[in-house]
């Protein structure tokens, strides 16, 4: 059985009497341990899909099955619980709380999971060691470099041992080299058996994942652009501009 | 998220915005301290009023006064006996609700007292039984009260209050020495009496302070050496009858034995009936709650003695007590309302600042929700922050209230010392807590309802 399954999911917004189908009858299956990228230009519905995959939002139509549970009818409270236990988020702009230390930031999901103080500290330290930041526990996020901050965010995403890591343009604010380090980290996580979803508009980044789903005009472009399949780095660099198809 | 965590987050938020938090708290601090100060003032007022009520014997004391025969019984007036000792014995024997009965026989006109080369026209001199001391809450400080032996022998002895002493023998404040005229002779309307006892000086708390201050002043003046040249009178200084009227009357007491009063002062002077008539009786009932029952009982006993002629009346302190109750309640209500409004305004300040705070922290709220905070967690966090501000402000306000009360008593010294009660503090603190909760509700609700996606996107 698929870990995460979308069945005919639509998301429809109404703005000024006009109906906007951000997602239109999307069906998608993700299996346990998959490393997948969702690619699409801005305005394609990629973000909306990510929100639904991440249980940040509910679809207007269709069903979302996560781990055998239909969550499309879940309450806000249940969604919060899913976000807390089953999904780890990594954002483009890191989204760390500036007033908290690195350690406290990583502890945050466990605070909402109701885990006690000493266990929190232990697990947060372990997660930070994993991303090689065990020596910066007391620092504030703004005292770290972008790459370090993103690694803190990854530690935070991992700390409740979620099945799914959902990364939204995780390298968008980083230079190429740091970006590669981060992508490597995701690859390792996927090798360890976690489901990792990369959301990006950059085919070069999408190229690192074995499976790619392209979103265009709110629909899954069933067969990814032939040119994308088995894309090599050099080729991608040249094609990036050409892929920016308007939505 | 545990409650403790929420409180810690709240405290951190306060610490992070110190100046802003301090300004917000100031509203609560002022509100709480003015509320406590208000209650302290009314408590002081109540204490002052009750002090006077207790000084005249409290609610349990009822006076039975002789009255003219009522109009519808005028044809029976020759049979009217007036209040006599027979009534006292009858009440002692048959009125179970009555605890103590004390007869009192007054001189009809203001007697002239003379001693020590001075004279003083006082307004009241009473012949009583020794038990009167207990009933009127007198304390004999020097010498002794006359005894039943003094009474039955009709000895010429008397016990006086300090007011009489002040007039005839001088004030201790002025002389610098205690003035205790025991053993001295005092003439009452020309009849010599030996002073065998003197009551303590009765005064309200505030009067006591004024008197002590005067004493210190006078002592300093004496220490400066005898004044040379002509004596200087510094003029009117607020009069000797400072303070509460009830205390002044009490200090002007002159008690003689009842028999002495009758035999030496009255029997030869009146053409009235041979039976000694009392001016009144003081009664103490056993239970204030049973006052109506007691009054009925006393009336029935007296009517039997008086052949059905109602030539007596009761005087209780109920009206006085009710008046105290209502004036204190009014003061408390109006003062509390004003102070409560200021606390409420403080609460609006908190709400304002919480609203500003959540719109500054939209992104933070988004992040917290994304990592698993439920709406309720956010709600709790905001309410706890708001309550924390209010409670810390409330505690500081309680400290400040002492200062405010001190300030008020410095600026406007009243007859009554303000009293901060634990109850007032608890009430003000609880109210500040409530204000904190109410002020937090709306911002917390707003924050909890925020959409995760929009909050995360917010810059």
Annotated CATH topology of chain A: Rossmann fold
Instruction: Specify the biggest β-sheet of chain A.
Output: 6 strands, mixed
Gross morphology of chain A: globular
The whole-angstrom Rg of chain A is 18 Å
- The N- and C-terminal alpha carbons of chain B lie at a distance of 26 Å
Largest interface comes to: A-B, 25 and 22 residues
CATH homologous group name of chain A: P-loop containing nucleotide triphosphate hydrolases
Helix content of chain A: 25-40%
CATH architecture heading of chain A: 3-Layer(aba) Sandwich
The assigned structural class of chain B equals alpha+beta
Instruction: Report, as a whole number of angstroms, the end-to-end distance of chain A.
Output: 32 Å
Q: What's the main sheet of chain B like?
A: 12 strands, mixed
Mean pLDDT of chain A: 84
* Overall pLDDT score of chain B: 85
Order of SSEs of chain B, N→C? HHEHEEEEHEHEHHEEHHEHEHEHHHHH
Low-confidence stretches of chain A: 229-247
Q: Total number of β-strand segments of chain B?
A: 12
Strand content of chain A: 25-35%
State Rg of chain B.
Answer: 33 Å
Q: Any idea how many domains of chain A?
A: 1
Topology (elements, then pairings):
The complex is a heterodimer of chains A (247) and B (459).
Chain A: E1 4-15, E2 18-30, E3 35-39, H1 46-53, E4 61-66, E5 69-70, H2 76-85, E6 87-90, H3 102-112, H4 117-130, H5 146-158, E7 164-168, H6 176-191, E8 195-200, H7 203-206, E9 211-216, E10 219-221, H8 233-243
Chain B: H1 3-16, H2 18-55, E1 61-66, H3 85-94, E2 98-106, E3 112-115, E4 118-121, E5 126-128, H4 132-135, E6 140-143, H5 148-152, E7 157-160, H6 162-169, H7 172-175, E8 185-188, E9 191-199, H8 205-223, H9 245-251, E10 254-257, H10 258-266, E11 280-285, H11 291-305, E12 312-315, H12 318-360, H13 362-370, H14 375-411, H15 422-449, H16 452-457
Helix pairs in contact in B: 1-14, 2-12, 2-14, 2-15, 3-11, 12-14, 12-15, 14-15
């Amino acid at each position: 059985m698929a870990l995460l399954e979308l069945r005919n999911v639509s998301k429809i917004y109404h703005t000024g009497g006009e109906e906007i189908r951000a997602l239109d009858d999307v069906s998608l299956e993700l299996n346990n341990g998959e490393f997948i990228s969702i690619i699409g230009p801005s305005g394609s519905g990629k973000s909306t899909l990510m929100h639904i995959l991440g249980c940040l939002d509910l679809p207007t139509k269709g069903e979302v099955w996560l781990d055998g549970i239909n969550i499309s009818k879940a309450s806000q409270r249940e969604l919060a619980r899913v976000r807390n236990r089953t999904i780890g988020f990594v954002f483009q702009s890191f989204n760390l709380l500036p007033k908290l230390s690195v350690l406290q930031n990583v502890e945050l999901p466990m605070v909402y999971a109701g885990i006690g103080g000493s266990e929190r500290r232990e697990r947060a330290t372990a997660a930070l060691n994993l991303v090689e930041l065990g020596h910066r526990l007391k620092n504030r996020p703004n005292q770290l470099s972008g790459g370090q901050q993103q690694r803190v965010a990854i530690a935070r995403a991992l700390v409740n041992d979620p099945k799914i890591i959902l990364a939204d343009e995780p390298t968008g604010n980083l230079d190429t080299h740091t970006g590669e380090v981060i992508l490597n980290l995701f690859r390792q996580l996927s090798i360890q058996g976690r489901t990792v979803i990369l959301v990006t508009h950059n085919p070069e980044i999408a190229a690192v994942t074995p499976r790619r789903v392209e979103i265009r005009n709110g629909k899954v472009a069933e067969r990814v652009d032939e040119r994308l399949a088995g894309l090599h780095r050099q080729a991608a660099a040249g094609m990036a501009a050409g892929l920016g198809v308007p939505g | 998220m545990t409650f403790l965590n929420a409180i810690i987050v709240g405290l951190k938020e306060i610490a992070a915005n110190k100046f802003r938090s301090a300004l917000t708290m100031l509203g609560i601090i002022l509100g709480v301290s003015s509320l406590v100060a208000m209650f302290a003032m009314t408590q002081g007022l109540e204490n002052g009023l009750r002090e006077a009520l207790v000084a005249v014997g409290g609610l349990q004391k009822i006076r039975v006064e002789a009255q003219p025969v009522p109009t519808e019984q005028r044809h029976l007036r020759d049979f009217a006996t007036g209040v006599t000792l027979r009534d006292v014995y009858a009440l002692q024997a048959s009125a179970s609700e009555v605890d103590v009965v004390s007869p009192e026989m007054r001189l009809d006109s203001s007697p002239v007292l003379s001693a020590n080369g001075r004279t003083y026209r006082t307004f009241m001199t009473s012949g009583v039984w020794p038990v009167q001391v207990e009933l009127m809450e007198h304390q004999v400080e020097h010498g002794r009260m006359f005894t039943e032996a003094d009474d039955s022998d009709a000895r010429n002895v008397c016990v006086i209050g300090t007011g009489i002493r002040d007039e005839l023998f001088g004030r201790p404040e002025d002389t610098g020495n205690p003035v205790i005229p025991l053993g001295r002779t005092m003439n009452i309307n020309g009849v010599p009496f030996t002073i065998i006892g003197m009551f303590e000086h009765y005064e309200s708390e505030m009067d006591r302070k004024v008197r002590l201050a005067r004493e210190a002043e006078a002592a300093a003046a004496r220490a400066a050496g005898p004044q040379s040249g002509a004596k200087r009178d510094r003029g009117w200084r607020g009069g000797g009858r400072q303070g509460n009227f009830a205390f002044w009357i009490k200090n002007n007491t002159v008690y003689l034995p009842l028999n002495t009063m009758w035999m030496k002062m009255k029997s030869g002077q009146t053409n009235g009936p041979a039976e000694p008539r009392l001016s009144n009786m003081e009664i103490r009932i056993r239970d204030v709650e049973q006052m109506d029952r007691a009054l009925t009982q006393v009336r029935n006993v007296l009517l039997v003695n008086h052949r059905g002629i109602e030539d007596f009346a009761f005087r209780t302190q109920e009206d006085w007590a009710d008046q105290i109750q209502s004036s204190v309640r009014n003061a408390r209500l109006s003062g509390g309302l004003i102070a409560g409004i200021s606390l409420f305004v403080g609460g609006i300040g908190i709400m304002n600042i919480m609203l500003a705070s959540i719109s500054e922290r939209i992104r933070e709220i988004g992040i917290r929700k994304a990592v698993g905070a439920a709406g309720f967690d956010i709600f709790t966090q905001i309410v706890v922050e708001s309550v924390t501000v209010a409670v810390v402000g409330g505690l500081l306000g309680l400290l400040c209230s002492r200062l405010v009360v001190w300030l008020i008593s410095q600026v406007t010294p009243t007859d009554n010392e303000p009293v901060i009660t634990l109850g007032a503090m608890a009430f003000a603190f609880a109210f500040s807590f409530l204000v904190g909760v109410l002020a937090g509700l709306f911002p917390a609700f707003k924050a909890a309802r925020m959409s995760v996606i929009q909050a995360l996107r917010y810059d």
